[in-house]
Amino acid sequence: xxxxxxxxxxxxxxxxxxxxxxxxxxxxxxxxxxxxxxxxxxxxxxxxxxxxxxxxxxxxxxxxxxxxxxxxxxxxxxxxxxxxxxxxxxxxxxxxxxxxxxxxxxxxxxxxxxxxxxxxxxxxxxxxxxxxxxxxxxxxxxxxxxxxxxxxxxxxxxxxxxxxxxxxxxxxxxxxxxxxxxxxxxxxxxxxxxxxxxxxxxxxxxxxxxxxxxxxxxxxxxxxxxxxxxxxxxxxxxxxxxxxxxxxxxxxxxxxxxxxxxxxxxxxxxxxxxxxxxxxxxxxxxxxxxxxxxxxxxxxxxxxxxxxxxxxxxxxxxxxx
Length: 321
Description:
By secondary structure, the chain is an alpha+beta fold. Helix content is 36%, strand content 20%.
């Protein structure tokens, strides 16, 4: 049984809003995440209340007079800096990254540019539009390759292209969801994720989680609604390689200016055990299937304790004017 926090600390948080639902393609998952967080915080004696920005206005959010909020929203209008900016304007301290890191983390292209600039390993890529010469891109990046909308999460709109004649259809799927489309070299290897907690010099990696999906398909359905995916924490992997993955994940997090908590997805190339950074999730899932709670459990941090630890980091990022 996890230790409860003191009554004094529970009261010190004041009136807490748990923001979940929203209007993104990931609304359903966000409701599962937020419901779990709400229950966990209430179970610790915290005065926590649900708030769905997909159904209620910013005026109503201000009228609630929350002392701080826990953001359990995923995807656009919750994870991309827009809500973070509104909370800065309203003066409501919030969990997770600020406006810039949230916005950059949601944009897989800008993320990759900054990581490459910092000398961090990430797969080669090309940016596509309706005029792109797809066979030339396939020749440049090599096959197979991955095509994805750069501003969606939860593996929505992603296609693996094995042959040039599949490229156009994959592009069309992603283009329905996004103005820009990202093509990325496919890294043959194992899939991992690294949760990071804390800010700046205090940021630390939690144990690495390996994701083993049926036929390598870690898609939306398998992520949230089936029990077919296997997770290993710790994985069967040399400790030095795990430590290196943790190191580059923290470096990747700091490079983007992330705060509070996030999850960094990493591929480990089979041929040489070299890790490649895929993306960062600045508002990761907190469902029963989610990976940050799993990594926290591996270091003895219960789901409830994790929620409280994240809530403790809620703050306004813009310095007082």
